[in-house]
Amino acid sequence: MEHTHTAAGHETAHVDSSTKTIWRTFWILLCITLVEVGLAFLHLEYGFLPRVVLNAIFVGLTVVKAFYIVAEFMHLGHEIKNLIMTILIPLLLFIWFIIAFLYEGDSWKNMRKDLKPGTPVETPKVGPAVKPGHV
Amino acid sequence: MDTAVTAKKKWWAGGYSPFNVSYGKLMMWYFLMSDAFTFGALLIAYGTIRFSSPSWPDPNEVFKSFPGMGHAELPLMFVSLMTFILIMSSVTMVLAVHAGHMRDRKAVAKWLLLTIIGGFAFLSCQAWEWTHLFHEGAWWGRNPFVNADGTQASTNFTNFFFTITGFHGLHVTSGVILNIVILANVLKGTYDQRGHYEMVEKVGLYWHFVDLVWVFVFTCFYLL
């Protein structure tokens, strides 16, 4: 790697000396966390917002926090596009992982409930294929 | 980092790092990506089991204690403090990286030291929380908490909680050790001789990743 030219040794000439964006990111992260905790308390005390809506908000705010940590603190937002893409595109797999596995978990719950010993067996409904009149 | 990539610059023609970062930093990114999948797998497994359970313990009932507050019910307060400590230590780390760009050795040492203190504070909080839960009867394979609907809970809840927060705590621990090693090098003047403080950036990436994982652990275990 000796001949590889990187910016590491050449960046002191034009470094932004202000720490403004760092502190701005800090306040954003802190405020989002306070909003999350605040919403959780409102739900505990007054039942504010149904659980499903609240969970959707929590997940959304978590993603926003993750964005600010990665883009600003980890500086990924300021790297060149190719690098950003090699990191982000593989992580898109998570979208499918989450959908597939949570669907699987929910399916197991339903099977456990419906197939528990002692559960009355439902008579299979007649499907549309064997409707009388069409035979 | 120099981001002025002009159209004329041939990044892939040799002589330049195509991603405009050093080898070490790029590999740190790829390591963190693989680590993200490890944590993702753990958290998704937790989600799957939780989705497959008819009921689950209410986190506000389990995590409601605060050191020195006796039996006062203070859900979310302690974990909010832990979150604040970790975000704060992320800020001091990014300030250390910033000071490294300025080649300000004293400032780098100061911010790194504060980051290490933040890391220790977080680990102490986690140690207290684990001890407290242990004394309540919770551990791997033991779950004293009942489900939100009053039924007997399985040990899935405690198993996942201790495994995932434990794995995260292990990352915090190794992050603190890395920070201490780098701080020793900073004080020795290793990076002044080398001409740049890039090692601070690399451990900084790792440290922010630990903070990033905590954001997800916080949501999955304490909020949802």
UniProtKB/TrEMBL annotation, chain A:
It is found in: Cell membrane. The chain crosses the membrane at residues 26-45, 52-71, 83-103. It is a multi-pass membrane protein. GO terms for cellular component: plasma membrane. The keyword Transmembrane applies. It holds the Pfam family COX4_pro. Keywords: Cell membrane, Membrane, Transmembrane, Transmembrane helix. Its main location: membrane. This is Cytochrome C oxidase subunit IV family protein. It comes from Chitinophaga eiseniae. The lineage of its organism: Bacteria, Pseudomonadati, Bacteroidota, Chitinophagia, Chitinophagales.
From TrEMBL, chain B:
InterPro entries: Cyt_c/ubiquinol_Oxase_su3, Cyt_c_oxidase-like_su3, Cyt_c_oxidase_su3-like_sf, Cyt_c_oxidase_su3_a-hlx. Keywords: Cell membrane, Membrane, Transmembrane, Transmembrane helix. This is Cytochrome bo(3) ubiquinol oxidase subunit 3. One of its GO terms (molecular function) is cytochrome-c oxidase activity. Residues 1-224 form the Heme-copper oxidase subunit III family profile domain. Heterooctamer of two A chains, two B chains, two C chains and two D chains. The lineage of its organism: Bacteria, Pseudomonadati, Bacteroidota, Chitinophagia, Chitinophagales. Cytochrome bo(3) ubiquinol terminal oxidase is the component of the aerobic respiratory chain of E.coli that predominates when cells are grown at high aeration. Has proton pump activity across the membrane in addition to electron transfer, pumping 2 protons/electron. GO terms for biological process: aerobic electron transport chain. It comes from Chitinophaga eiseniae. It is a multi-pass membrane protein. It is found in: Cell membrane. The keyword Cell membrane applies.
